[in-house]
Structures are given as C-alpha cells and as structure tokens.
C-alpha cells in the first residue's frame, strides 16, 4: 500500500485542519514535513507541510474534501437551540457548547 499526497498546506495549522477533516470522515491521513516549517526562509527547499493518505483507494474522496476546504467556508446551516439545555448554538457546531448534547 502506497501513501499519496492530497494537500500541500500553506502552514502547519491548515495541514492539521485538513488531516482532521479526512480522519473525521474515515480516511486515514497524516501530516508530513510540519516540523520543517520552522526553517521557512532559511532552508533552500520546499518546507510546506503536506497531508498524505494511507490508502490510495481513498484518493478521489479525499481530494473532494480537500477541494471543498480550499473553496472556503463550508455551509454550516442555521443556528439551533439545544434540546438539552435550550442554549443557542451556532450552525457549525454538532454539539452544544454548554451541555455537550448532540445536535438534533
């Protein structure tokens, strides 16, 4: 099984975000070269972090997720009221920040 690069990140934070998005969707992924970022401007090489997936069979689905990330904010839906405590929760959250009740 050969790992494949699916994303060249501008910085380590974006690499971790993309990796987490992939992992949350069941795609085994990891970040490479994140520790080289500290040498930016000092090393004569490409030191941008990369996100790689472990299974080439996941490549097309991973690239769809990465493409959606690159396009900008994902439509998160409307705000919702927590059925557990009544707290108003912003649309991007899948659980209540106050009581951790899952979004209905």
Automatic annotation (TrEMBL):
Residues 5-69 form the DUF2007 domain. Pfam families: DUF2007. InterPro entries: DUF2007 (IPR018551). It comes from the Bacteria. This is DUF2007 domain-containing protein.
